[in-house]
Design a protein that fits this description.
Elements lengths: L2 H4 L4 H11 L2 H22 L4 H14 L9 H23 L9 H8 L2 H11 L5 H8 L3 H20 L14
Protein name: RNA polymerase sigma factor
InterPro entries: RNA_pol_sigma70_r4_t2, RNA_pol_sigma_r3/r4-like, WH-like_DNA-bd_sf
Pfam family, one: Sigma70_r4_2
Length: about 180
């Protein structure tokens, strides 16, 4: 089969085909579909270690394709990368290393969010996962997930643009 023949297959069908044949062209198709979204997500969650974590994840899939147990491959990928990032974050907390990165105001604001809010925001906005899927990944209720998502957006807006007075909070000018 040619590369074009694989384009119409679902991720799960491609993974099954890769398990059976171990053809690198099939793996490459899966990799190509998901590499950019995973990279954008992980680089914003953990800039210093994202390349290593992604390399390990793809190597693991290449050597031993996963059993999805009814999950979508895309969801499985984000669950795995999420676990790896959390483990790396726990290791980094013990090391307490400070790394200086030149960042945009938005990236700085995203990095200042609590990790759960940052994770929910990035999974939804960057990775285009539904909030229901994000709630499943984080193992929280959909209602709580929505609250964290909206709170994260508000905090980023405040960190980037500052506190904007609301029309009902404008100070009265005394003459």
């Amino acid at each position: 089969m040619s590369r074009k023949a694989f384009q119409h297959l679902t991720d799960e069908a491609l993974l099954d085909h890769y398990k059976e044949t171990r053809k690198t062209v099939v793996f490459h198709q899966l990799y190509t579909r998901h590499k950019d979204a995973l990279y954008r997500y992980s680089i914003q969650m953990a800039p210093a270690s994202s390349a290593k974590i992604l390399q390990e994840l793809w190597q693991k899939i290449l050597e031993n394709p996963p059993q999805l147990h009814g999950r979508l491959f895309r969801n499985w990928l984000f669950i795995q990368i999420n676990k790896a990032l959390r483990e790396q974050q726990a290791l980094n907390e013990h090391k307490s290393t400070a790394v200086d990165y030149r960042k945009s105001a938005v990236l700085v604001a995203i990095q200042k969010l609590p990790s759960l809010q940052r994770n929910i925001l990035l999974l939804h906005m960057e990775c285009k996962l539904s909030l229901a899927t994000v709630a499943d990944i984080e193992q929280i209720s959909l209602k709580k997930c929505r609250e964290y998502y909206h709170r994260a957006k508000e905090q980023i807006e405040t960190l980037v643009y500052g506190v904007q007075p609301k029309p009902w909070q404008v100070e009265v000018i005394e003459e």
